[in-house]
Amino acid sequence: TGRWQKLFIYIYMHVCVYRSVSTQKRTCPLLSVQPVRGLLDEKFQIAVTNLPPNQKVTLHSLHQSDDKDFWEAFGHYVSDEHGSVTGFKDESLGGTYDGTEPMGLLWSMRPIPGSRHGLRIRKRDIFRPMEVRISVYSGHLSQGFSQQTPLATSVTERWYVAPGVKRVNIREKEIRGTLFLPPGSGPYPGVLDLWGVGGDFVEYRSALLASHGFASMALEYLTPEDLSLEDTDASYFEKAYQILNNHPMVKKDHLAVLGLSLGSAITLSMASYSKVIKPQCCVCISGSHLMPVEKSLSELFELMKSHADKLCVNEDNQVILRNLILSLPCQSTKVDVGRIKCPLLLVNGDDDQTLPAVESAEDMAMMMEKAGNRHLLEILMYPDAGHLIEPPYSPHFRATNYKLEWTKEKIVMLWGGQTKPHAYAQEDAWKKILAFLWQHLSAPVSTVTSF
User: 355: alpha, beta or left, given left = phi > 0 and alpha = psi -120 to 50?
Assistant: First the structure.
């Protein structure tokens, strides 16, 4: 009858719609990034499912830095017979990275086409995460991502600071810095964190150290408006060390000094000559003992300014600083590392174009051998890594804009390194730096607070 025919048609149409929706749900690609939140040095896992078998796809990452510049990375993949792509086991066949590289979407990031030249990512607000938008696109794309519609998208947050880490401003005895304290009641082993001549005060490494159980103080010694370079001599660093050592949340006499670039030169000098700074261990990243810092920083910069004619420039008009350092008349004033009495870890890249890290490490080893303290020295030398060895998965910067402190001239500084080996150096060195600090400061092996 007509009534039964209408009922049959009604049921049939609903079954068809249900099947259509179910089919769409089954075939719509799904993108998963786990964990959604994590520390910067924590690996994530990317998985794409519900793709057709053997489909070419592109995984793409996009990040807007604190300076409002956009950075991207991408890898080309082919789905397996199940229609899946898994970032931690499948190979990228091309893009900004290749091979099985679970974190390639971070460390191979570069400015998007049309960006300003000579850019560098530096996290300024460590209480805001590094947000990375990860998308999957059909086909193997190398450009024009903003004009394409992704098959699926997910956002992951990478943090420099774990939940519960406290930030304390240090403003005493003319010292300027920031102390990061791990969660809990303490006391914690301490790290005095010294960056180089980058033009900005950097806190993110100290925040990450605190996330691993260390009371880390990032010391401001170049940028304070109320501090002149004439005042920044050995006594300034000694006062900072005492403030950290005497803090009620810091385990007294369980301190390390960690320096990068100029910060390493200061670390070596203080460990060799200071009667106040007596660290249990030191870590020097991309440093040199050939930079005489026994007086004030203003005198060091004046010395470098007087040798500015030794600066070299490559075919891309990028400045190579290492030759200037090698030309300094410091054979009689170089840091006497034979006086060092604590374990010392050197972390260097053999393509460092900023400081003579290779030559310095070799000379330091000979000096310490002669002085009888070579057993205290451990050297990590990474092939094809450059000067800026930062926390793991940070993008590699071979050359960036820079302002010479001693001339105020704006240049493009050549840091050196090749992207993939430099990324390996950052990941491996960070693990070994943390292990070195844990070993000599008696810190717990795992104190990271879960997100």
Answer: beta
End-of-domain residue from the set 159, 179, 197:
159
Residues forming a β-bridge with 242: none
Cβ neighbours of residue 257 closer than 8 Å, sequence gap 6 or more: 191, 192, 194, 241, 267, 270, 271, 277, 279, 282, 283
Residue 1: pLDDT band with limits 50, 70, 90: low
- Find the catalytic residue in 76, 387, 422, 440: 387
Q: Is 387 a catalytic residue?
A: yes
**Omega before 187 cis (within 30°)?**
yes
Quote the domain boundaries for residue 399. Answer: 166-441
Active site residue 63: no
**Adjacency order of strands within the sheet including 312-313:** 312-313, 319-320, 410-414, 399-403
Measured between alpha carbons, how far is 191 from 250 in angstroms, rounded to an integer?
10
Flag whether 449 is in a domain. no
Establish whether 286 is a catalytic residue.
Answer: no
Instruction: Determine the Cα–Cα distance for residues 75 and 116; give it in Å rounded to an integer.
Output: 23
Q: How many CB atoms lie within 10 A of CB 288?
A: 30
Bond from prior residue into 329 cis (ω within 30 degrees of 0):
no
Residues 152-174 pLDDT 10s: 999 999 999 999 999 999 998 78
Residue 290 sits in the same domain as residue 434: yes
For 20-71, how does the pLDDT look when each residue is reduced to its tens digit (9 = 90+)? 444 444 579 999 999 999 999 999 999 999 999 999 999 999 999 999 999 9
Please say whether the beta carbons of 351 and 381 come within 8 A: no
Q: For residues 141 and 252, state if they share a domain.
A: no
Active-site choice (288, 352, 360, 422): 352
> Could you say which of 65, 79, 216, 261 is catalytic?
261
Average pLDDT, the chain: 89
Structural domain includes residue 310: yes
* Tens of pLDDT, residues 192-206: 999 988 657 899 999
Domain final position from 159, 179, 209: 159
